[in-house]
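Aim 2 progress update. The chain analyzed this quarter is reproduced below.
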Amino acid sequence: MTDEPRVATDRERLETMLVRQYIERLESLDRETERLLESIAETEPFDEPTRARARRHLREIRAQLHPLTLALRDHPHADDELRDSS
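Predicted structure tokens:
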């Protein structure tokens, strides 16, 4: 038995890279959805029912993104940096 650190396989490195990319994309989608949610109040062409419906749908999108992001951060191939950013 040796005390040498375990070296990640090519597949593990690929999976770690993919998890990182998915998390970054989900966070980007969340930021864009938040920006749209904040800007919808300033959009004059929409009547109040349309704005309310748009806000509801944008909040629903954010509610779906959050658990996906958390699940990926907890994925076995998420590195410590990704886990700490939650």
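The CA atoms of residues 73 and 82 lie 6 Å apart. The chain has a mean pLDDT of 85. These observations will guide the mutagenesis experiments scheduled for the next reporting period.
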